[in-house]
Amino acid sequence: MRGNDLKQAWQRMYTMIGKEENPFRDRIVETFSEDGLGNLSFNDFVDMFSALCETSPRELKTIYAFKIYDFNRDSFICKEDLRKTLNKLTKGDLTPEEVTLVCDKSIEEADLDGDSKLSFSDFENMISKAPDFLSNFHVRI
Amino acid sequence: MPPKRKSNISINIEDVGMEVDASDSGSEVEARRKAKNRRAKPQRKAKRVSDDDDEDEEEEDEDQSPRKRGRKKKAKPRDSEDDEDEEEDNRNVKRKSSKASRKKAKDESDEESEDEREKKKKGASKKDKEESNKEKGKGKGKQGKDVGAEKDKKKKKNRKLSSSFEEEEEEEEKSDEESLSEGEMAALKEEVEEKKKLIATLRNKPWRMKRRLTLLKEAQDFVEKFEGALGKGKGRKLFAFKVMMAKKLIKFKRDFENFKTACIPWERKIKDVESHFGSSVASYFIFLRWMYGLNMVLLGLMFGLVVVPEVLMGLPYGSIPRKTVPREEQATAMDYSVLSDFEGYFKYSILFYGYYNNERQIGLLKFRLPLSYLLVGVGIFGYSLMVVIRTMARNANEGGDGGDEGDFTFSWKMFTSWDYLIGNSETADNKYASITTSFKESIVDEQMNQKDENIHLRRFLRVLANVLILLCLGGSGYLIYYVVKRSQVFANMNKDDLTWMEKNEVEFVMSLLGLVCPPLFEAIAELEDYHPRIALKWQLGRIFALFLGNLYTFLFALFDEVNAKEFVKLTVSDIQVTYLTILVGDFLRAVIVRFLNYCWCWDLEAGFPSYGEFDISGNVLGLIFNQGMIWMGAFYAPGLVGLNILRLLSSMYFQCWAVMCTNVPHERVFKASGSNNFYMGLLLLVLFLSLLPVVYTIMTLSPSFDCGPFSGQEKMYDVVMETIDQDLPAFIGNIFLYATNPGLIMPAVLLMVLALYYLNAVSKGYQQANIDLKKKMQMARDEEKNRRNNKDSTNQVMKDLEDLLPNKSLIPPAAEEEPPPPDVVVDKGSRSPKVKPGAAGKGVHLQRDVSLAAPNPRDPVTRDLGPRRGPPGNAMGPQPGPGKGRGGGRGGGRGGGRGRGGPPRP
């Protein structure tokens, strides 16, 4: 089924679960859709909620979080991905220098293998220590 | 049908003893086999702890030790080759079936050793059955065996999840269900329970929806089919109930948390401010809230023990002179100007010390008001000291100067700060603001860390700045001293000769200094170029020193006649000045900048006046000095505490509003987690300073003779002595007498000093240990960073998820590698310290995944398997390296079939 057909329904769903305001809403939908374009099959849709629900395990959430933040889908979170993430988070309020600083620092903190981009294991290592990842990365339906 | 058969069997057993075997049907044989199988199992387990039912090995075993083979074979009846053998045998034996039965009875004793014969025996039984049941029976027998084997496998935790397999199995089970033995029932039950558990927990499993659906369907089918055989699911209701209760509990906990948060006063307001202005501005409001809490307790003490009893039980207004406005003042006693000076009716009210009577006991309850008054006055200080010090200690525990909250400051902010629950646009805006603010705070910290500078120049500038500020302070101190001196001279002159300027000189100079100095200090502090957080502390300290001059003038120019009225007046004027400043300095300015900007020649918003920033240091110090005033004045004016509560309450709302709508965030928003303790330190200092005069008056001055609860006493503390003498038993008086003996006090003081010294030493030791631990952690982290080959995920769930991984190369493609020789393997194992000790035991949920396992050792194993097996615990020892971990995990009993063998032995 095409996303267009159900756009309205989805829209209502989003409002209900509070995705309206999420800066990553497009990324979430793209990540969970099998074609990567944001068209969700019913299974994808249910998948999305099961991953984001309160009881789903940290590992699953980590994987989807990684996918969400990996904008260009190259299996690494590179500086460009970070820049996009940051701009979405701050609505572009930071100056370019500040953005560069933050991106560099983030990579420096989490990058264990020194390739100046975050692989999944780097990401997992970092996220597994984050105190409020689980409490923030879920929705209530 | 089967029951019948069973009865037959029993008869047969009775009649022919061992002949049973021969005359039995296929399914019966199966059942017996199972029984034997069960018997054989423990042995097998003991011998081959981790080994699997690998056919090849099985064959080897058969060849090597034919004696064992019989049992073994029964234990592993599933092997297709065995089956084929049997078929062949059957065919062969068919011909000599009549012989076989007789032979069997004869050879019974050496049955176990004679492999051939056993086969024949079986063949005979098969044949018999065939004769009676034709083809069907045979099929059944075979299938039954299959099922048995399947069970066997299951028990060894080699679960097969492919649907086709299971369907087949189910069919077989169905057809053969009735012939299940006890053991099988148990196994089946276990299986069903497992499936049920799977259904219940499927939601939490880290699988994609497709896989979940398949699994769910299978499990449901399975359970549906077999539950009939095992009796309808007991405990299902209980389980559902448990799940429901768990959910309810979670929800309740969540609601309770929300409720708790909602109970914290102004939490939302402060969070709003924090998200837009940063934690530094929020720290002021948190301090204000804390102060409000403290004052609520003081209010409770003062009103509960002094004011309300006096109102309820004391003499009413007008009964005695001290409670009545004098006749000559009565005409103007209700005038606004008089009241605003706290004269007139206000002066003769419960607000002030003078109103209280010195009657020892009042009312029906015989409430000792003077005693209560004194104890509350002292108790307020005691409580405040305790609370301030306790809060400081707690803040110190939370520790740090802020800033170091982990190794992942930025990446955590980046990836985990957005709350996916937010659905409200206003909340979302706040969240955006708070994320931006927190990023900015961290950026400021980081920039400060990165800055490299000319250290000598910086030092010179800092010294210069301090000299300048000391000059300022000295100058202003002298100015105050000079003005106070002059005012004392003026005080002796006739009031009518003085000009307005001369009359209010002290106040004028004080306010001028208060107005000019803080911005001057701030300007000078620019030279120092400290981190804003440290700069704030310096600024606070300097302005504090300046205001101490204020305190000095207040204490020494007015101190000779302690007038409670002054405290109240001062507090009220302070409130007025603060609010007016906000209205004019912030609100009016904001309005002008906002609306005049449309018709102005330069950009007012970006240019000169701009909007105001929130003045943290000024507000904090205002609050602190105000509190000092309350502490000092509360003894002489009980109503002051109530007034202060009103002030704090209104200023919380007013300032929150003002900051949100008229101020802009600081240019450099900075994090201020530690400065709260700095506020507390200043507060403690002020508390001591205000404690001194009050205690001094209580201990040395004699109270006025005509008003107040202590009138007529020599000293205020005489009420305590009086109570001890008159109302308490004599021995308590003695105790007090001893306690006040210098001979006892001196050792007590000494003891306290020693305890202080000891505790100080201990805390130093802990601090050192803390620093060491921090260093170690940092080192460990660096080491981790340096380790390049630790990319293997050893987390079991992670492995389940591998088809989801964004990058499959994460787990090295072990299947493509040649199985390395054992020594290499061991070497590798020692290099992967991340292997979890319990990982091997968790193999239960492992799927068979050939691609990750080492290639199957096809070579014949020609010697005993002992050394390879090892105890289960061995799995945590040196293990085959990444990717081969599963193959090597046989020790934990997870090995399950082909392709699971370890690397071949040379």
TrEMBL record, chain A:
<dbReference type="InterPro" id="IPR011992">
    <property type="entry name" value="EF-hand-dom_pair"/>
</dbReference>
<dbReference type="GO" id="GO:0005737">
    <property type="term" value="C:cytoplasm"/>
</dbReference>
<dbReference type="GO" id="GO:0001750">
    <property type="term" value="C:photoreceptor outer segment"/>
</dbReference>
<keyword id="KW-1003">Cell membrane</keyword>
<keyword id="KW-0472">Membrane</keyword>
<dbReference type="GO" id="GO:0055074">
    <property type="term" value="P:calcium ion homeostasis"/>
</dbReference>
<dbReference type="GO" id="GO:0001917">
    <property type="term" value="C:photoreceptor inner segment"/>
</dbReference>
<dbReference type="InterPro" id="IPR002048">
    <property type="entry name" value="EF_hand_dom"/>
</dbReference>
<keyword id="KW-0963">Cytoplasm</keyword>
<dbReference type="GO" id="GO:0032420">
    <property type="term" value="C:stereocilium"/>
</dbReference>
<feature type="domain" description="EF-hand">
    <location>
        <begin position="57"/>
        <end position="92"/>
    </location>
</feature>
<dbReference type="GO" id="GO:0005509">
    <property type="term" value="F:calcium ion binding"/>
</dbReference>
<dbReference type="GO" id="GO:0000287">
    <property type="term" value="F:magnesium ion binding"/>
</dbReference>
<keyword id="KW-0966">Cell projection</keyword>
<keyword id="KW-0677">Repeat</keyword>
<dbReference type="GO" id="GO:0005886">
    <property type="term" value="C:plasma membrane"/>
</dbReference>
<keyword id="KW-0106">Calcium</keyword>
<dbReference type="InterPro" id="IPR051433">
    <property type="entry name" value="CIBP"/>
</dbReference>
<keyword id="KW-0479">Metal-binding</keyword>
<keyword id="KW-0460">Magnesium</keyword>
<dbReference type="Pfam" id="PF13499">
    <property type="entry name" value="EF-hand_7"/>
</dbReference>
<feature type="domain" description="EF-hand">
    <location>
        <begin position="98"/>
        <end position="133"/>
    </location>
</feature>
<protein>
    <recommendedName>
        <fullName>Calcium and integrin-binding family member 2</fullName>
    </recommendedName>
</protein>
